[in-house]
Amino acid sequence: MGKVSEYAFINAKLRARIGQMHSSTMLSDMIKASTLSEAIAVLKDTKYSRLVSVYAETGDLQAVELALLEEEIRTYREVISYLKGHEVSLLSVLLEKVEMENIKNAVRLWYSSVVRSHQITYRSSYIYKDVIVHPVDYNAIINARDYEGVRKAFSDTIYEPVVNSFSLEDIKKEGLFPLEIKFDHLWFDRLFSSISGLRGEDREVSSAIYYVDMDLKNILLFVRYSLYHHLSSEHLKAVLIPYGHIYEEIMRRNLLDKADNLDAIRAVVGHHYPSVMADLKDIRKNDDELTTADENASHILMIEDYLAGTRKKEFLKILSGRPFNIGIALSYFFLYKDEDRMIRSILSAKFYKWDEARIREAVL
Questions:
Q1: What is the pTM of this model?
Q2: Which of 119, 123, 253, 307 is 20 to 30 Å from the Cα of 24, by its Cα?
Q3: Dist. CA 182–CA 180, nearest whole Å
């Protein structure tokens, strides 16, 4: 099958699914449902129908969420099976992001048990424990009695060097945040390495979409960890993702090494994304007598909403472009994950008995 024929096949298949997402009343019907049980019942004749039987058998929302994760993994594998060559490598890296979040959840359980001395037996049953991409031993992570046991669980995987760069003393002193950041950076390295292996339109489309994606993520990291939590420049440098136009300009101008750099970095962000500048300017130190933590949190939420909308527009833009490239698969997975997120949010809201108006405001 040639490249055009391959993408024509994928384009037809995935566009049909995207069309169903856009025309479906599923999410709206779930929000209108009176109870959690009724909301799950809405899924009966959809691709999420297995969730109905899982809930009927268990009555357990966390079991339903695990089934959602299993469906997500199955969907990635199905689309990957339609492709070959470097395109498979890129989509496999996207599936590695799902794996990495699963790894973080397993490591958090170990941390709760060994470092915090909390009971985790109940929660451990909701970790996906089969192989996703790499042969990580999730049971060994969760049941490890020390950090050496955690390290062994990652033997001969791409994650081994990251885990081995920490000790139990490091974890006890600094928590899991530095480890999770290193996991994230490993994934971004692998993402851009896989993009560099693509050719022609595939590389052009992927680079454009993920450069914007990195910019948006770095803006959020800058807002959260510099403006809000006031990390030092050294620590901020370790947190920021080393890709994207904003990061490259900050590093080219050595802004992180300058003592008074906040206004300059704000200007860089404002040049590329001027719509966030008003909220950026209004975020101040929480101990400023003129500013409350709630006010700052409100501005951060506005920025997050704007950036999420910008990200969605970038992916949707692909759908109106040329159909014979990997962009259709990237857009499909973005929309799929967005739908998955909304399903989880609606079910959680129903569990906590939120009213319909509040759910619509929070989810849609």
A1: 0.90
A2: 307
A3: 5
